[in-house]
What we know:
about 575 residues, mainly alpha, 24 helices, MetI-like_sf, cell membrane, membrane
Amino acid sequence: MKTKVHLEMESKKSWATNGMKNTSQFLKETVMYVMLCIIIFIIIIYPLLNLLIKSFDISVFISLFKDKSTYISLFNTLIIGIGVTFFSILFGGSLAWLVVRTDFRHKKFVKLFALIGFMIPSYILSISWIEIFSKNGYLSRLLKFLFDYDYNFFPYSIISVIFVLSIHLYPLAFMSISNALEAYSMDYEDAAFVCGADRRRIMRTITFPMIIPSILSIGILIFSRSMANFGVPAALCLPIGKDVVTTKIFSYLSHLELVNATVLSVILIIISACIYIINSKIISKRKYASSTNKKFRNPKLIKLGKRSRIVNFFAIAFCICVTGIPLASIVITSFLKRWGLKIQLKNLTINNYVTLFTNPYTNKSFINSMVYGIVGATAAVIIGCLVLYLFYINKNKLTSSFMIIVTWPIAFPNIVLAVAATLSFINKPLKLYGTKWIIIITYIALFIPIAVKNMSGIIENIDKSLIKASRMSGASILSTLKNIIIPLIAPGMTSAWILCFLIALREIPISLLLYSSGTETLGVMLFTLQSNSYGLEMTSTLAVVIIIMSLIGNLIIKKVRRRSK
């Protein structure tokens, strides 16, 4: 009798304990959802809503479109977008076909230079462009030395912007089209060849139609990125008084014309959103016929034959011209005592690097960039991981809304995010303008979609039975996340964190519009060094440091991804 009573008491105690445990878990999960809602609202929804609400002024729209300079900036932006897209696909597509479909010998060389070219920030490429093609630039000196020829090429123009952005973005087209060419089956081409079709007809009727979705998709992405770029037009157009939309927004903000900047930002958002939607639809419809037979693994390569030497020469010359020479000019200039001096041993020095690392102003900028990058990347990865995890284990309206909202910022140019942050955090209740927190919050908004994109592929491959087993054993959502999900997606989290951190080191528009005294970053320094009487040699020195950090970071990302496979 005593034993029965004891068992009943133990059972009631166990139920009570489990009930308390479940109630505690429920409360913790509710708090987690509420906290996530608040964070996402402050970081993403509040700034973007503010931007949209404050742009609803028809009179400003009308006055803006009565201004001729608005049309000129829109026209220049359009010309740059079309030009960069055309040349990027031309360069990248030609090299991709050469590497994937022919017996071209220097495939690794082309791939390496494409990767290095993409890692060099576009603003640094524009600096090297000025160093090479300006009146006292390296090309002018070389022509003078060899042929006693004075040339009059002016490096500041819309065409210069198109060229610089093309050599920065062509690696995107190269990688995308290479993947497309490698992804579809060779059976169709082999069948056409057996039936007597020549190479040109196969290219026109089979190869090109198969990769056209990939070309369209990457073309739209390149158009969007070139349209949203700020650094290159600022370096190559502002000195001659020509504007694109991003520099126009910067100009309005510099003159405290917030309403005009807001309306122009919304126009840019509408264009970017349309491009993003079109791109998403193309990607969702993109399908390739895949194959696993030996022919696919070892496709029959087109022999270049007698044209091999000419093709090899032009391909290598192209890579050296668009990546090697700009990189060399930046490195050489960083060791010059002063820009414009002859390249002689007596004119070379390491003092630029000593000055860079001992100057309190530059040290402060290094520390700021590191801190903002670490905080921003860490917060973005944590938020991204949490949103992905909740969406993965429980797809409902709330988690689906989280997923949609956190990917919004990817469709917005950086300068628009900066405008939205300025409007939202300049006054109470969240008065953060003039502090480091406005930069960090905007960095987080910028980084979250990047982190989500990097981790989503890995988390989707996790077997859901592991999560079910954990939950059935009584583990909470957070315990499951900590003990199962995070260890499995750690490589993705690491590479996402490094990628976000590297972007923070070279980011310009957000830092430039939101910094105040004491919160300068490397991007601000890079943009303002030249105008602060330091000259091109100091700008190049900082550029070399940023390039080295980018290269190291990308090598770590590659190593982490290789280990995770």
